[in-house]
Amino acid sequence: MMFVPRSHLALLVLLAIISNRHLSAADVQFEKIVLTDRFHAEAAGVGDIDGDGQGDAIYGPFWYAGPSFAERFPIYPPEDFDPHKYSNNFATFVADVDADGHLDVLVNVWPGKEVAWFKNPGDSVRQAAGWQRQLAFPTVDNESPTYADINGDGREELCFHTDGMLGFAGPSDPSGTDRWPFTACSEKEDWQRYTHGLGVGDVNGDGRADFLMANGWWEQPAKPGRGPWSKHSFDFGSGGAQMHVADIDGDGDGDIVTSLAAHQYGLAWFEQVPADDGGISFTRHLILPENAEGSLSGVQFSQPHAVAVADVNRDGLPDIITGKRYWAHGPKGDPDAGGTPVLYWFELVRNPASQGPEAVSFKPHRIDNASGVGTQLATGDLNGDGRLDLVIGNKRGGFVFLQR
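-> structure tokens emitted (404 positions)
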């Protein structure tokens, strides 16, 4: 079976709907594979690293060969970290940086520190050494940077803020070895290295990707110049995790999905509505409440520090995947720091008999209660069966969840 990257899953979803093969929630089952119980990273990635047609899992210094994930091979010198403290890997991205046909691995060492990328050695990828480390950018702020094609050139860029300015960076030469130039897209603000919440998506439906932060969104102009993008202020919470643009209510425009506070409580979607001035505004709808006592069908957990949006059950609707970040700051210091490290997917359900937000509801489905999330989770079809799989990395170790 062939590995199918996330970007190709839409076609699989369409085929599934046409053949009436979408799954009921009861049919969605995940097989858990423990990669390691050692703390190597707060992030994870997916991709066909060795080019054999099987999806592989990337957790910290190793890539784990699919389909069994029993064999692992080093990317950079491994180190076990104390789960009371932190690792040297807060974000992991997988992409062919130098366009040589082999997937490389990018690592954000720490918020406010560098993103480095490791060049896939190709035919020697299963050997003990050979990945060359290259600097992409020296100071990458935010705890949820992302890697996406924000400028529409067909190649993904590193999206983040640095020195208080929101923007992106990509290779300036084909080899990707020169320091990547930074394109600023905002005025300078008081963001710092540990600012939470960032996303990229087409908010206004003009076909161009926009920037999202907890305090608003930045509209990409039709002809980007040297000036900042137009800022549209809005309160999306105090700063949670990854921010996503998705049509939740089925009215054709872009709504926003994010957690409200990475180290507190709260998960929400923001319905896009017309503003009084003719522009865009949003109405907040809670999925998980902002207080510990509240719940959705009895489900509540703190520290939703990683959020993904994807179609889990192949019904053509965007679902939400998130969970509790385990020991974000150790066993103390955060609300319910030692609580059960759960992982959930929230099924989007639309009621055709209703309209607006009343037609939307979410049903929580537990995937696991002994993993949780880190600062990032990875999704993709690892074994080519058309079903969405997950890779998780955090202080409990690394995990693959294969949908069966």
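The first helix runs from residue 9 to 18.
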